[in-house]
What does this fold into?
Amino acid sequence: MSRPATVVHRVIKAYDVRGLVGDELDESLVADVGAAFARLLREERNGAERVAIGYDMRPSSPALAGAFAAGVTGQGLDVVRIGLASTDQLYFASGLLNCPGAMFTASHNPAAYNGIKLCRTGAKPVGRDTGLATITEDVIAGVPSYAGPSGDIADRDVLADYGEFLRSLVNLTGMRPLRVVVDAGNGMAGHTTPAVLDPISSITVEPLYFELDGSFPNHEANPLDPANLVDLQNHVRARSADIGLAFDGDADRCFVVDERGEPVSPSAVTALVAARELQREIGATVIHNLITSRAVPELVTERGGTPVRSCVGHSYIKALMADTGAIFGGEHSAHYYFRDFWGADSGMLAALHVLAALGEQDRPLSDLMADYQRYEPSGEINFTVADAPACIDAVLKSFGTRIVSIDHLDGVTVDLGEGTWFNIRMSNTEPLLRLNVEARTKEAVDEVVGKIAAEITSQAGAPP
It folds into this structure.
């Protein structure tokens, strides 16, 4: 059955499939996506013979995953159902079983949404340039039927194997006792945390919102929003915990809170993990995206590694991980990528590195992380604008001779000298202009943010 191109393009995006359940995403469309994905794999040379499927705790996920499986098996490929899973658990299954995978989740989006994250064998990404464009065309035109026999469906529980594998990648010996608060946000970290952390005798987990509930009754599973960290911060202080961990809905991103309840910058986490990885492989390459703190490439260079800068987005990071053989990669959004995890991202693996670093010495986390926090960040600030290029042009003109250098790797990155820089770029997924500023002092950050916000507001006529 053919489908309107406008509808399909609205749901199949640059990196994944995502939309409102019922209005944009239903079982019929998902079955077609499954069939198109299987057809793509089947027709490629050395194509896969089976697809692993996992899903999160959203009420719509099991039925959508079932429809996708029907589309896959209808094209002659087998399906391995791993059931409830985090996204990085699905990536683990893809690596372990040596097959492509599909994860049903809308990550940090509200409860009304769902989606699909696809990967090739070994957790390699599927994006617009690596298969999604072909899938989109097939779904619009109508996926041709397959004349051969249908595939089979089997079940495989990989949760315990996933936990054991992650622990094998981090030296957890000799750790002092740690009290760790984990806020799962009623998302999939409530499923994976016990499998990963409970076997570590030196760690006592204080669970917060571990009940799987896709309606997110306590707060949205989006730790990027400071409002969603408040419960974790209060609990860390109340329980005199050593550290707090917050995960998004599909538990592939991890945010860290120190013993004072203060958030730790993902850039600082990137620098810490990079330093640990470079200890075991001096001279290795580390990927960082262009709005990660400049402390990251500075530290990588100081530790004998090779920093490589990337555009924002997992497909760019994963491609560079593969091209360069990088040992590790990190993003400002708390996505952390590991060569030993098939180049894929795992928030839980990053959390294990932070726990190991904290547990192998006696300082509190705030002192430990101060070693990796050299600059003050603004955090990502979003503006809704009608004419983004005009706003960017006006911002650049407003700084005039203060500009030391400009580059255009992803949006516009402007160096103002003396450690101050900003990046302004259009969102890949939303009608937003995104701003990130970094400087040596908070006062310098505030000055640049204020100047840019005033200019954009003047141009756009809309507040940030």
